[in-house]
Design goal:
The complex is a heterotetramer, with two copies of chain A (370 residues) and two copies of chain B (259 residues). Chain A is an alpha+beta fold and 370 residues long. In chain A, 26% of the residues lie in helices and 33% in strands. In chain A, the strands form four sheets. Chain A has a six-stranded mixed sheet with strand order 6-7-8-3-9-10, with helices on both faces. In chain A, α2 packs across α3. The longest helix of chain A is centred in the middle third of the chain and has 18 residues. The radius of gyration of chain A is 24 Å and the shape is globular. Chain A starts with a strand and ends with a helix. In chain B, 83% of the residues lie in helices and 0% in strands. Chain B contains twelve helices and no strands. Classes of the chains: A alpha+beta (370), B mainly alpha (259).
């Protein structure tokens, strides 16, 4: 039996349903992210695990104990908030020791534990400061230490990095991941930032409109999205209008140029209008791949230098195509206005039907990978 | 530089408007002895046993009012902001009542409502009634101060953080909410203090030996002493403000930090 | 469910504490004719020409006070927040003065300071002095309301945005600052209105035909009419609050939007 | 003569110097970013151009007119703020038309111009809404339209995207760039986000502690940083402790493994301790580059899947090394714990002295590129 189980959890506020049919089993020590746009129900689900919201239906089991009706202060759960939520009237050390003080642990033990946690978050010399004397990143590290001080069964993080600058976000992300591994604590992390979810998680739960769209490792979710929503929400995607030429052998046409896909298009018939989905990083300049390839030619419309990556936008006639190159100081990037041919493997192509239903070639791949 | 002139002009006019009368009062209070400047009026005031008695009485009453207000208002304001935000307009409305219902009416109504109960038939009962009236009078200031103080911290997240760390409601109120609205509470408490010390109508109607009626009696029976009294109470106020600033310094800085 | 009980309990106690006397007053006001409930007391009040005159006088005075306060306080508060933030403690101090300096002292000082000037030697002059006193009395409420209103918008960036679009100071004040503190100003104005309508001491000392002294005279000479008067002024207050809520609705929503 | 010139501009607040020795010439239609950490003086400089701060010394010339002493409301400059700074009491249309109304333009003209701008920002149907009814991204687009309505000589943007979510940030960035190109308006953009600066700018002014560190195109600043600060602030960088083996032929040693750099190390002597700087994207798995290469071997310590990119951390003995691979669903990324050899070209190596002074091999490259 899994360490944390959510069984048929449902939450509605009046007439509107926030979360529906939520089933998840998290193993001990696992790091699971809830990923989705705002309003998708990810925070509501986290708050139900924490006990701040009561499920309308369903059960929540932690370590074999049904906690569905347990108040939040009896659940022994560590929580980290976007707003840090440090107690402004207490020093860093008092903040971290707050939970232990409430549990009436001896002063010696509290002091030792606070010192240990200050060491873990690399802030040993900050114990006597007040929260307002710290930067945002430091405050969030203290909030993390405070949540960990009570040795909680579960660590819950609700968009902990959203209020921080890009650079600090990246470094604190790394630090959270390291501390989590070091302590082996089961963790649920809520975010709307797909890169964050992918960088941190063992598994990602992608949510949309109160429902689970897909559960999988970052690699699975990114490379084998189960639904059209997942494909477009996680990462960037080129969507080209295409027509099926021969469904049996997996041949489609984009503006008259033939494209071979890796699998027969069992869901479509010849002549169907479909979307061809391509990740920008799977497209290369002509000549870089040696195996069987597809080619598309067009005009370079825009070149954006992003540092380590150069993003090129190519215009065919009706379609636009982005692709990424690694920066190379010795190589001149393509120039706007020039003609260009790009190539990509048949395996890189995903074919999506024109409706919003799960695209079958993708779920087939996902099933194989899982 | 024109753009800097007008605000300063208005500021100076405002300051003059406040300060000139104050100076005139002070000047007048020194002229108790004909032809010389002296503190005779001050000595007269301070030597009056009634001054000390009534001041002490009102001082105690003010403290009781503040403690009761704080104990009632902080949990109420906290709970309204946390769980019953729709009640806020109702409370805002109550907040305005003391301005609208004249004190005379308030006291008559109170006295009529509670007549023949221990509240009106004993010395202690009348004192309780007096404090009750002052709690109402100070309600707008205390409530607004506490409400503003609560808004400046994220009580929602702080509450949930404390809950997740195992704290119950009493602990949250005592260790998280009260300490963080302390400064706001002080500013409300100070106004309450000033109101209670100066209040005349209710104290007089309830026949209480308070400082307000004493000041008024003095104002109608003496010439120079009222001015001296005004300056003395003004000085006491300054001292109180300074004390509050000093106490509040640390707490203020903590709560007002970056967020 | 215990955690929900106490706040509601206190809330109810508080409400009772306010409402029971109000009900008692209303009940009493209906008993002007022995043995039956009637609005006779109300008719007596409304038929009294003095009621209408004094009410109208105080109404005009209140409006004048509000307009003058707004014209002085909005630009001052704006400028202090924008450029002179270090002056804020000083202004906060002035804000407390009216609570500290008893009205009696204030008026005596004003009268003494301005004696032998047109301010004290003419009917109009005394009216100006009255309004001046009320501007001081209402200063804390108006200033704090405007100050809070200004804090809820980013006046710094709004000012610079307007400047970069070519606006001068007058335009910024008239088109950007005033419209955005309108709601805050209304809430301060309402309190000012209530204070001026009920104020007794200053009006009486300056011998002005105001509503406060009228109410007091009535309270000491009649039995049932004061209660009727209290209910009438209470109803007028309700009406004023409703009007303000209604006017302020749109503006409030706009200013309180996401930021 | 350039369209906007800042000549020897200096600004001090009391004893502290915010900006010093600032010289910049911006051509008509150019998009220039001020990039640096907070407190580097970039916003102060922008505010001096706008007229909100007066320079302590120096001159600011716009279109041939010295505006150093002109008040901000006479400069005809469009300004966009991080906080949007829309007038809450006015509709979207009134906000956009505010500047024209102040200039007493006829009502017809104002209406036409507002409609045109609403079209440009794709918000034609939002004219009657109030700011609070809009999302953050929409508010910022309105703020941009408002700034453009007065047909300003200069458009100044002060961290306009910092308050927005990652996805909206990226799309609005694109939109700002397109509108700027379409209208050809000279633009200065302040940001602390290096990717933003690189994606948007024709040239970047990198600032630190009130001084200009480098002025150059994104490509120059990223690939040929003039100072150690620029190298570390713009993009991510591996810094390996190395020892000079033979300065004359450009040979250094990293933990006993020999590395050849492209240029002789004229500033160093054999035996000197130096830092070897390497961009993560210029490092490849062994076997991918065919020309003369350097190789380093180590143990894979951590693999972070970021979607389009897989970031691998390799531990040598004392040094750590990050490098990036493009995601490939067909290829298993390296596994933690395995041995790995990476390669990189001699041209990818920058050698930095142990002091903080500008590293000369880099500025030599920069000079060549400029």
């Amino acid at each position: 039996m899994a360490f944390l189980e959510l069984v048929n959890v449902r939450k509605s506020f009046g007439a509107s349903v926030a979360v529906e049919n939520f089933n998840l089993a998290v193993e001990r020590g696992e790091f699971v992210s809830f990923l989705g746009p705002s309003g998708c129900g990810k925070t509501t689900t986290l708050r139900m695990v924490a006990g701040f919201e009561k499920p309308t239906a369903g059960r929540i089991v932690i370590d074999g104990v049904d906690v569905t009706d347990t108040p939040p202060n009896r659940r022994n759960i560590g929580m980290v908030f976007q707003s840090y939520a440090l107690f402004p009237n207490m020093t860093v050390a008092d903040n971290i020791g707050f939970g232990l003080k409430i549990a009436r642990r001896p002063a010696d033990e509290i002091r030792a534990r606070v010192e240990e946690l200050l060491r873990i978050i690399h802030m040993s010399e900050f114990g006597r400061r007040y929260p307002y004397q710290l930067s945002g990143g430091q405050q969030q590290r203290v909030a993390l230490a405070r949540a960990l001080a009570i040795q909680p069964k579960l660590l819950l993080l609700d968009e902990p990095l959203s209020a921080l600058d890009a650079k600090i976000r990246a470094s604190l992300r790394q630090e959270i991941r390291e501390i989590q591994r070091q302590l082996g604590i089961t963790t649920i992390y809520v975010t709307h930032d797909q890169e964050e979810a992918m960088a941190l998680s063992d598994r990602i739960v992608v949510m949309s409109r109160g429902r689970i769209e897909q559960i999988g490792t970052p690699f699975e979710v990114y490379n084998f999205p189960a639904t059209r929503f997942v494909a477009s929400f996680v990462g960037t995607l080129n969507l080209l209008q295409a027509t099926v030429v021969d469904a049996a052998i997996g041949l489609v046409s984009v503006e008259g140029q033939s494209i071979r896909v890796a699998r027969p298009l069992t869901q479509h018939r010849s002549g169907d209008a479909v979307s061809l989905a391509l990740r920008p990083e799977l497209i290369a300049l002509d000549g870089q791949i040696n195996s069987e390839v597809n080619r598309l030619s067009g005009t370079v419309e825009d070149v954006t230098f992003l540092g380590s990556i150069v993003r090129v936008r190519v215009r065919l006639s009706a379609n636009k195509l982005h692709f990424d190159l690694f920066n190379n100081p010795q190589l001149r990037p393509p120039q706007p206005g020039s003609l260009i041919t790009v190539q990509f493997a048949p395996e890189a192509c995903l074919v999506l039907g024109e409706d919003a239903s799960p695209a079958h070639p993708m779920s087939a791949s996902a099933a194989q990978a899982a | 530089m024109l753009k800097r002139f007008w605000p300063w002009f208005w500021f100076t006019v405002g300051a003059m408007y406040f300060l000139v009368p104050l100076y005139a009062t002070f000047d007048f209070s020194l002229r108790a002895r004909r032809g010389e400047l002296s503190f005779a009026a001050y000595a007269n005031v301070l030597n009056d046993i009634k001054f000390v008695e009534s001041f002490w009485f009102s001082f105690q009453t003010a403290l009781a009012t503040i403690v009761i207000s704080a104990l009632v208002i902080v949990p109420t304001a906290y709970w309204v902001q946390l769980r019953l935000p729709r009640l806020r307009p109702v409370i805002e409305f109550f907040t305005l009542l003391p301005f609208v219902v004249p004190a005379v009416v308030l006291v008559f109504s109170l006295a009529r409502t509670y007549s023949r109960t221990p509240l009106t038939d004993s010395r202690e009962g009348l004192w309780v009634l007096l404090i009750g009236s002052y709690v109402i009078l100070s309600f707008p200031y205390m409530y607004r101060a506490v409400d503003t103080g609560l808004r400046s911290i994220n009580i929602h997240d702080l509450t949930e953080a404390a809950q997740s760390l195992g704290a119950g409601w009493f602990t949250i109120l005592a260790r998280v909410i009260f300490p963080n609205v302390y400064t706001a509470l002080l500013s409300g408490a100070f106004i309450t203090f000033a109101i209670v010390m100066g209040e005349f109508t209710i104290a007089a109607l309830l026949a209480q030996p308070a400082f307000g009626p004493y000041m008024n009696r003095l104002a109608s029976s003496r010439v120079y002493e009222p001015s001296a009294l005004a300056i003395i109470s003004f000085a006491l106020t300054w001292a109180a403000i300074a004390a509050i600033q000093w106490i509040g310094q640390g707490a203020q800085a903590r709560v007002a930090g970056p967020r």
